[in-house]
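S2.1 Query sequence (D-arabinitol 2-dehydrogenase [ribulose-forming])
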Amino acid sequence: MSADKVPDTPVEIVSDLLTKARNIAATCENVPEELSSLLQKALDMTRGLDDYLGKMSARESEPLAELYRKTVTHDWDQVHKDGKTMFRLPKECITGHVEGQTLKMLVHLSRAKRVLEIGMFTGYGALSMAEGLPEDGRLVACELEPYLKEFAQPVFDKSPHGKKIVVKTGSAMDTLKELAAAGEQFDMVFIDADKTNYINYYNFILDSNLLRLHGFLCVDNSLYKAKVYLKDTADDNGLALREFNQVVADDPRVEQVIVPLRDGLSLIRRASPASECSRLKGKITDDEVFRGVRGCSILDRMRLDGKVAYVTGAGQGIGRAFAHALGEAGAKVAVVDLDQERAQQVAEELRLKGITSTALKADISEPDDVQRMIDGIVSKWGGVHIACNNAGVNMNSASEDTSLEEWDRTFSVNLRGTFLCCQAAGRVMLKQGYGKIINTASMASLIVPHPQKQLSYNTSKAGVVKLTQTLGTEWIDRGVRVNCISPGIVDTPLIHSESLRPLVQRWLSDIPAGRLAQVTDLQAAVVYLASDASDYMTGHNLVIEGGQSLW
Ligand SMILES: C[S@@+](CC[C@H](N)C(=O)[O-])C[C@H]1O[C@@H](n2cnc3c(N)ncnc32)[C@H](O)[C@@H]1O
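Output structure tokens follow.
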């Protein structure tokens, strides 16, 4: 702690008291050596703690460091004397490095997308949390003093995360009412403004549903310099926080814990819908729609944790995007491709993202390769739950010139290969009594895309749809669902080649969406079809083509 810093947290205050006690002991005669040494040891322990936490926590970004420097060197007394702020703002208000990183970590871990801060000060906490938000995340910061918005904004503007922050100046309670009236909801709320109003903010946030059902609150200063539990507390803020903590502890709507970080940080989460039910008996329909199927929200129902998946043709393009999507949703993924090196590269990408993966080489038109692929996955991971049969080839020729070779090669990969994979994976899945098969068909199964000529491709993909419908109805009563995805024209590097460029213009005029499909446009569909959320769907051809087949 620097010499001019006012002790502000329980640890800093203990440290200050110990320093005083040690100094007194040093001036007294007859103080036992052991007492001095114990005082010194206690002092070293308390003094060193915050420093150590700072050193061992992730480093702050340069904009955060600038905000900190700018805040602690600013003459807040003068600003107040000049009438620029309504209140005299102590620089100790700032959350600072360790708390900032803690808030950022909480945003990350909770995957919050919308955060509300009540009491922004110079924006250190706001920017820390914004750094943890995804690119489309948003943080609304309430601040009474307009001067502080002007102070923080130039630094926000230097950070790539500053654009996620919207500052609302004025009384926080007025802003909360405005947000609630606009139907806004937040995943996380950080309360750090006037202490005597904490209880009002808390009640308003819960009563007006500003905090979404599975959201949580962080409340700063909940230990308030230890005054919340010291008997002789007389100051308003200490008493307000003591009452606040008690109200939260007695509130059946929430679960909470106080983390003794700096001046105390309460983490409060809205309890499960089930506990809200008993309180709201009669006012709600307490069913699976309200509670979620098996208690899971719709997004959780699309998680694939613990599932084993494979994707053929996963070395590039759509297959690679499918492999990433299934892995991101929680599945272990076998990346299968004819090209071993590409498969390995994609498997490595997945591992870098923390996804369990393996690379396999297989030619799906060869029964032995397909069987080896399935056996390998089963022996490595104990089963196959998601079979993504995506590999395919596309050759072009006028129908009168289509060679038998082209026809056979197309059918042997696109239809025979898909059949071999469905059969080999299906046998395992039927034994398990569970499985999700997702075949890649094509919009060409519905319409005849033009002007390119691709008889064998179109016909083989129509076959994939019929294969899917037949298996999907034959196996569903034994727990195996079979569906397919029909992408429209997908934007791949090949499409930008000199020879295809004129065709792209033609295609674009045929697509109501006005653009080609990106592989990322197909990712949610594969996760949905792989998840339990789509259990009632089988034999379906899910067409994703920007409306092209409808024109
Ligand atoms: C402890 S500081 C906030 C620190 C900040 N969260 C950070 O990360 O550095 C409290 C802030 O709340 C603001 N404040 C106090 N009363 C308020 C109110 N009624 N409405 C909005 N803001 C208020 C103060 O102006 C001050 O800037």
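The mean pLDDT is 95. Residues 89, 93-95, 119-121, 124-125, 142-145, 148, 171-172, 192-194, 197 surround S-adenosylmethionine (CB under 6 Å).
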